[in-house]
Design a protein that fits this description.
binds 2'-monophosphoadenosine-5'-diphosphate; alpha/beta; Rossmann fold; 12 strands; 22% strand; 2 domains; globular; 10 helices
Length: 278
């Protein structure tokens, strides 16, 4: 009997995940026969859930909050971008059954900015807000675009300084606190704090944004996040949230699993239409 390749996303909570919708759209569009489901996995069940998934025709997994750092520790091999991120959002089950851990978040963000929103990162002055896992995951792919400079500002200043130092070999990176940003403006401001999730905003000085700035919240919601509202009030040229990044990181994962690139534009449009309805 021919078996169907099985894929899934593990997370906790997972009921609002758009990943099954996105990957099923990709599979349909590219004529790939596979299944993709969302599985609620609390961290303490991760090992058991992974073993069970692999024993039942599991070919690949996505991991989301709060499992990315845990998944990182469980891989047999890691891609370079996963090693830098210290987090895994995509697991590829290789032909010999070993697990390759990848991280497609950073490339997903850069693809959304560059391809979907025509934002130039090369030579740009870029600011990342936050110095946690989300920030770590995007620094490598951003630095690969050769920006003029990258600032990382965080509530806990020492974490921003440490992260800047860790990536110092990739170019000019400055770690600082929010107060230190007074008097500076940036071409691109990326919100990688988890403040949006509780509808909060980091304490930001007023003059960060100029009339051509692009502001991007890595989080997304059905209505404008606190950061997107702030960006609009500051007069930023582009005020974006992470819906496109979500689809692009999924497309990169799909490519790693199936060696075929889906058309992301159609899926982004479908998700935009879905959230307008609420
Ligand atoms: P994630 O994996 O989503 O990045 P994380 O590693 O817990 O989650 O990091 C959360 C980030 O959001 C941190 O940079 C945190 O700042 P601290 O390092 O000072 O804790 C930041 N953050 C969360 N809530 C915030 C808030 N209300 N204002 C400013 N920064 C906030």
């Amino acid at each position: 009997m021919m078996s169907i390749d099985r894929y899934a996303v593990f997370g906790h909570p997972i009921n609002h995940s758009q990943s099954p919708f996105i990957h099923r759209c990709f599979a349909k569009q590219t004529g790939q026969t596979l299944t993709y489901e969302a599985i609620d996995v609390p961290p303490e069940n991760f090992d058991r859930a992974l073993a069970d998934f692999l024993a039942h025709k599991g070919r690949g997994l996505n991991c989301t909050v709060p499992l990315k750092e845990l998944a990182f520790q469980k891989m047999d091999q890691l891609t370079e971008r996963a090693r830098f991120s210290k987090a895994v959002n995509t697991i590829i089950v290789q032909l010999d059954g070993t697990l390759l851990g990848d991280n497609t978040d950073g490339v997903g963000l850069v693809t959304d900015l560059v391809n979907n929103h025509q934002v130039t990162l090369h030579n740009a002055r870029i600011l990342i807000l936050g110095a946690g896992g989300a920030a770590r995951g995007i620094i490598g792919p951003i630095m690969a675009q050769l920006p003029a400079s990258l600032y990382i500002a965080n509530r806990t200043v020492s974490k921003a300084e440490k992260l800047a130092l860790e990536f110092a070999q990739t170019g000019s990176i400055i770690g600082c606190g929010f107060d230190d940003l007074a008097g500076f403006s940036f071409d691109i401001i990326l919100n990688a704090t988890s403040a949006s999730l509780s509808n909060q905003l980091p304490p930001l000085p007023d003059d960060l944004v100029h009339s051509a700035s692009c502001c991007y919240d890595l989080a997304y919601a059905n209505t404008a996040t606190a950061f997107v509202k702030w960006a609009k009030a500051q007069g930023a040229a582009q005020c974006l949230d992470g819906l496109g990044m979500l689809v692009e990181q999924a497309a990169e994962a799909f490519y790693q699993w199936r060696q075929i690139r889906p058309d992301t534009q159609k899926v982004i449009a479908q998700l935009e239409a879905k959230r307008k309805i609420g």
